[in-house]
Amino acid sequence: MRKQGTQYRCANCGHTEPKWLGRCPECGFWNTFKEQNAPAGSFKAEIKGESYSLPILSIDPASGTRTSSGSAEFDRVLGGGFMRGSAVLLGGEPGIGKSTFLLQICAKIETKGRVLYVSGEESPAQIRMRADRLDALKPNLEVLCSSDLDRIMSVFESVRPVFIVIDSIQTVYTPEAGAVPGTANQIKYCTQEMTEWAKTHDAIIVFVAHVTKEGLIAGPKAAEHIVDAVLAFEQAEGDLRAMRASKNRFGSTDELGLYRMGQTGLSEITDPSGVLLVRREGEVPSGVAVAIVHEGSRVLLVEIQALTVPAKAGFTRVYSDRIDASRVARVAAVIEKQTSLRLSDQDLYVNVAGGVRLTEPGIDLALAAALYSARTGQALPARAALAGELSLAGELRPVRQMGKRARAARSLGLSVILGPAEGPYGEAEEEKAGAGRDRSQAWIKTSSLKAAIIELWRPR
Ligand code: TYD
Ligand code: MG
Q1: Does residue 341 sit within a domain?
Q2: What is the pTM of this model?
């Protein structure tokens, strides 16, 4: 009979099986299974006899508690802090600030226990110099410069950290997983090993992953299935950095964290509603419209800029990298159908001031107004702000948090606030928005794109 707690792991891909097999069902390699004892304390070792389930009431709820990262923005993106025993992958282009950011997080979290920063890319002296600048010289912060998995794992055992950073997962290497470092197999195997250690020791582990210009976490794609959350740092305009989750087992994926890179590392932007707004005196140029965006739990006011030029080729193109190009094409088609304004012979350029990528459906109306304004040359009224989703039939669909959006827009001095007729304009919602007796003035309610265009360009 098989020994209790024994498992077999494929040396090529890290796949585990309860019994030895000649060929790995995962990667198809032969004779790669090696016997391994499941680490004590892991749930696999706790399995007694044939009973594989646990009464839900017997599970310790404390195993699901969260630990604050020390950064409110980061906590929000994570869904309320780190889950104990969780693994996170942080991707981003080289030079965007991943190492800087995580060293800062290490310095904040070290009050909770020993913290280990593993670097395969920099020397101890380089890390010390950076830590100096970031005010990260803390007694509980340990540094290890190594890319050898075995060595890293043995330091885990001796240091017993509560928080670990692996910078980066592409540099970690073990001869057990093939001859070449940085391959998908290496990444998968090493991520699996280290994640398992973290889970069985209730530690939090963060892996840094370099991504290519195309935005894909190329090699580390293999690691995405192993970790609990996949986050990415994106470059917005200048020193602005945006952080988003593309996978999150313990929270939503629509939160947006905003940071600024400065002399002493990354600092949080705690009230971001106006940071992306372009302040203009007097007349507004044609082709721009302000969207009231609700990303995650916060409102941002963002200027959408559009330009239309007659297409030179026999076909037209959409140039838009901050808003999905297919959304731009769809909104342009709705404008053409509803207003008879011809856009199908134009090349469309769309940009978002501040460089943040927008995914929320509520930007449709502002995008439509910017395109309409660009094509007709008629500017929107000053201090206008818009929110609403467009259906293919040209109706304005309701979007969430109308009261909160109106409040944010008004507090930034915007007064012509246009939105859908239907919506969560509930009594309570508007009361909270402080609309009170002038409730009708909170939003100019329009039911269709056509009505919104008439409202925006009526003489006032
Ligand atoms: P880094 O964290 O090394 O990026 P990554 O790990 O994602 O490759 O950040 C590198 C850039 O950040 C580098 O151009 C210098 C800049 N930087 C600052 O502007 N301020 C700082 O305090 C630090 C430490 C770096
Ligand atoms: Mg780095």
Answers
A1: yes
A2: 0.77
Ligand nearest to the CA of 168: 2
16-to-27, 73, 148, 228, 260 alpha-carbon distances in Å: 11, 37, 22, 19, 43
* Cα dihedral 100→127→148→153 (10° resolution): -80
State in Å: Cα 181 to ligand 1 middle.
25
Ligand 1 centre and the CA of 94: distance in Å? 9
Residue 49 lies in a domain: no
- Considering the domain architecture, whether residues 264 and 292 belong to the same structural domain is answered as no
SS3 170: coil
Domains in the chain, number? 3
Pocket of ligand 1 (CB under 6 A): 92, 94-100, 130, 133-134, 261, 263-265
Question: What gap in Å lies between CA 254 and CA 357, rounded to an integer?
Answer: 12
Q: What is the dihedral of CA 42, 48, 53, 58, to 10 degrees?
A: -80
The pLDDT profile of the chain, 460 residues, written as one tens digit per residue, is 445 567 888 777 777 888 888 888 877 778 888 877 654 444 443 444 445 677 777 777 665 688 999 999 999 999 889 998 999 999 998 889 999 999 999 999 988 899 999 999 999 999 999 999 999 999 999 999 999 999 999 999 999 999 999 998 989 999 888 877 778 888 999 999 999 999 999 999 999 998 876 655 556 677 888 999 999 998 877 888 999 888 999 888 888 889 999 999 999 987 778 888 887 777 889 999 999 999 878 899 999 999 999 998 778 899 998 999 999 999 999 999 999 899 999 999 999 988 888 889 999 999 999 999 999 999 999 899 999 999 999 999 999 888 888 888 988 888 899 999 876 665 455 555 554 444 445 788 899 999 999 999 887 6
Atom of ligand 1 nearest to the CA of 100: 2
Q: Which structural domain range is residue 258 located in?
A: 65-268
Q: Is 53 within the bounds of a domain?
A: no
Going by CA atoms, what residue is nearest to atom 14 of ligand 1? Answer: 95
Of the residues 201, 234, 268, the one at which a domain ends:
268
* Whether residue 136 is found in the same domain as residue 235: yes
Helix (H) or strand (E) holding 145: strand 141-145
- Amino acid code (one letter) for 442: A
Domain endpoint, select from 240, 268, 296: 268
Q: Are residues 216 and 352 in the same domain?
A: no
Residue 274 lies in a domain: no
Residue 457 CB-density burial (10 A; 0-12 exposed, 13-18 middle, 19+ buried): middle
What is the CA(234)–ligand 2 centre distance, in A?
Answer: 14
Are 104 and 179 found together in one domain?
A: yes
Q: Are residues 331 and 224 in the same domain?
A: no
Distance 307 CA to ligand 1 centre (A): 34
327 lies in the same domain as 450: yes
